Amino acid sequence: MARTDSGAMAASGAAGPTIATIAREVGVSVPTVSKVLNGRADVAAATRARVEAALEKHQYRRRRAAPAPTASGLIDLVFHRLGSAWSMEIIRGVEVAAAAHRTSVILSELGGEHRPPQDWLDMTMTRPPLGVLLVAANLTDAQHQQLDRRSIPYVVIDTDGEPPPDVPSVGSDSWNGGLLATRHLLGLGHRRIACITGPSDMLCSRARVDGFRSAHDEAGVAHDLSLVVNGNFYVEAGYEYGLRMLSRPDRPTAIFAGSDMQAIGVLRAAQELGLNVPRDVSVVGYDDLPLASWVGPPLTTVRQPLTEMGAAATRMLFEMAAGQVPAVARLNLATELVLRESTAPPSR
């Protein structure tokens, strides 16, 4: 049997193509194919494209020569955006699970984009990592195939959309979270409830709004479409939309914010307008970040198990790196309402 780079063969066994087979078909050297597989930059773009096309045509998959030793390896943790307490909770969960395997974590940030650029993928393949965790982001089909050919597994956390069937994901029950928050406000007697959700291109944002609407339908209460807006999960959006809504002559008596950070922005807006929370307006957040219990008033919120989500996704990744198939491909953790002091019945 012909020797190949790092013992690489197709996952299907000896009948699959070798690097030498690919090299002969494309008309390049075996080292050139090896460079493409390893993400090396010193290959012409046109040559790289031809090699990648041949790899995909033959459904080439690299087989790991042996399981990665427990004392080595890296995990790439990629956020679509960093910079909030929300991301710190996920990082904490990932690091705890990775430390149990004596594995380090590398952080990357996509500047708000939900798909990484190709140069990120090229850099990733030069390491290569034990696996990749993507938060509120995913790969293109071509990028997915490139990692798959190199036996680099990846897991998506809080996906922005439905990932491919062979890519595991970990999230929380955002629909139920929106339902619980809105049921609570309706149960207090509120009938004009605003919703400041997250970006419309994120699955969790849409699910929370669906829960918000379902709670209204369940109670037989119509909701005002003009009171439902898309924010960005950050303080500034909560402040901006909070000012706008609470300045209306028909202002809402309650606001459900799609994140604790947006809820804090709403609290600031209410304060600037001379409104008391919860006497004049009730506010519900989402996430139950540590700071939610320290703001004034302490924030009623929906707890999303962010640390547990990060840890669970990391454990899945280790299973896949060891050649195992995760027992559950779509893990959706429970959400729960945490009652504090920012909600009350509407004043007369």
From TrEMBL:
Q: What superkingdom does the record give? A: Bacteria
Recorded hits in PROSITE patterns, A to Z, give: HTH_LACI_2
SUPFAM superfamilies registered for this protein in UniProt: lambda repressor-like DNA-binding domains (SSF47413), Periplasmic binding protein-like I (SSF53822)
Q: Which SMART domains match?
A: HTH_LACI
Q: Which residues form the HTH lacI-type domain?
A: 17-71
Which CDD domains has this protein been placed in? HTH_LacI (cd01392), PBP1_CatR-like (cd06296)
Membrane-crossing segments per the record: none
Keywords assigned by UniProt? DNA-binding, Transcription, Transcription regulation
Q: Which InterPro entries match?
A: HTH_LacI, LacI/GalR-like_sensor, Lambda_DNA-bd_dom_sf, Peripla_BP_I
Protein's recorded name? LacI family transcriptional regulator
